[in-house]
Structure formats: structure tokens, C-alpha cells
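QA checklist item 7 of 12: single-chain prediction sanity check.
[x] sequence parsed
[x] length recorded as 365
[x] structure emitted
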Amino acid sequence: MSLKAVVMAGGKGTRLRPITYSIPKPLVPIAGKPCIGYVLDSYYEAGIKDAIITAGYKFESLINGVLQFKQHDQNILFSVEKQPAGTAGSIKLISKFIDDTFVVGSGDTLIDFNVGKIVEFHRKSKAKITIVLTTVEDTSQFGIVELKDGIITRFLEKPSPKEAFSNLINAGMYVMEPEILDYIPEGEPFDFAKQLFPLLLGEGVKIHGYIGDGTWLDTGRPNDMIRANQLMTQKYGTEMNGENMSGKLIINSFMKDLKGAKIEGPTYIGSSVRMGKGTVIRRSSIYDNVQIGDNVLIEDSILMENARVNDGSKLVKSVIMKGTSIDKNCEIHESVLAPQLKLQSNSRVYNVSLSSDVIEDENSS
């Protein structure tokens, strides 16, 4: 018997549309790695080499994406749901593969915890189930918990400010013993937070809580995705203090001649990136084969593979997807441009998500 890990990765990522129309949410890029890569690496660093990924939406893309970046000696089994089974229900479907303590994490949330410490706490406390917790300022979109002497005494989903009794939330990672699976019914959708945990409390099962050591972020919206890229570049980047480069940077391109371009961290630069003179990049992520012209400003944004930005354009707090081309002197603010768009010169795009093939109007809004 060996410690196994599970990654829940079957969701549709509706809040990230149109980004998730073309890629599953667990594969959205974060500082050069897909989101799901951080939780898988956290397992691997804890010595867990056997993982099961529960998949549903765009499962073929998900499988191909995971196989491209997983550790060579990491064993991955995929469980594809024909119908949505719920968070707990998806684990019930793979119960025959679980014979010992196991860890469950979410593949579409940025989780970069010290899993070894979590498992150690779980075993020392002789817990049947341990929920990993984290703190947030705004609890209204999460499930909060009350923790007393390491034991969770109550839950409340998405409380109003008046209802909130804690800023501790369920981080979407759990350590469990196999007998917990007996409480999950077969053949019907079943949810951890809404159904299983209240059931366990009602049955008198002690639910232990552990405050996670590491980075956690809900990546449900485009601005969260941008923030996640900044956080992980800040965490894993190298501090630079040169004339043209400053702050925490991860740079995979050979940047011998910046031609007067400036890069301010936290910024990620992928492979084969080209940029022209007078260009400024601040707190952004620029992925492989992106071409950037002269006098371009890119700030708090993400440019995915093969995107192109021509001279004089300005991008702020935006996500530009694969293969999209932005012509000269465009301005894009707080927007998402879907793959393969062609934005004509002098376009203005503010606070929208564009997903058509060609943008004709020079003053789109």
C-alpha cells in the first residue's frame, strides 16, 4: 500500500470564459506552468508519485497537457466522468484504487502547499479526515469554517459579511482515510462542502483542520489569473537589478540585446520572445514565440503563445490568447481576447471579452 494523491480537474471553468472555451481551466498558464502543475508538483515533492486525476470537460486536452509536463517517474491515472459526479462523487468513482491514506486537491485552483507537513499533521493527530485551510480577506465567495483546538466545529458556504464568523476557508485540499469513502453514496452527484462534511459532523466524525503552509489563490476570473502569474513569478523568480531589468523575473528567452526595452518584475518571459526598442513590460507574463514591436506598453497582463503586438500598442490588465494579432496603436484595458483574433490598427477595447474571428470596427468597445 502506498500514499496516493487525487486531483479534481473536471470543472468547466465558466467564470474564466472565453479563456476556457479553448483550454480546460487546470491548464491555464501560471508563470510558465499549467495551474494543475503546482498541486502535482506539491504531491511529488512530498514523495507521492502515484496520482489520479478526475477529468470531465475537455478531458483529451487535459490529458495531453498533463502528460507533457509531469515528472518522468510520476504515475498518472485518469478517471473520465461521463456525467458530472460532484467533488466527492468523483472520488467515489475511483475508490477501488484507494487502499490507504490519500490526499485530494483541486487542479483548477492555485495550490502550492507543503503537502509533506499536511500529511504529517494528519497522521500524528490520528485523523480520519483533515481539511486544509487558508485565510482570505473576502470570504463571501468561499466556504468558511470555525476551528477550535484543531477541530472544525461548523461550516458556512459563501457567507454575507454579517454572517461571517471566521476568515478561515476551505482551501480545496484534504487528507483522508479510506473509510471516509463509505459515507459517499454511489451513483449520484455528491459534494464535499455541501453534503459530505455536514454529514460527517452529524455522524460525530472529527474533522481536523490544518492551515496550509504555502501559496493559495482562486483563479476563477481573468484578473485572478493575472494575479496568480505575478505571485508565482515573485515566489520563484530571480531578483534582477540591471539597467533594463528589475524585480523578480523568470526569463527563458536569450535576451542578449533588449534594444532599449525594459522589463519590470514580477514578469515571466517564455522562449523565443522578441521585443522592439522602447517597449516596457511590467508585472506581466509573456509566453513562447510572442512578437512585440517598438514602443509597446504591456502592464499587468498575459500574452499567450504566438500572440503578436505591433508598434505603439498599449495593454493593461488584459489576457491575450494564443495566436491573436494586435495591430499598431491599439489600446486594450481589462479585457480578454480569444485565440486567433485579428485586431486592426487604432482599435480601442475596454472591459470586454472578444471571441469573434475578426474585429472590424476600429473603435470596438
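[x] summary fact logged: The domain at 4-218 is CATH 3.90.550.10 (Spore Coat Polysaccharide Biosynthesis Protein SpsA; Chain A).
[ ] second reviewer sign-off
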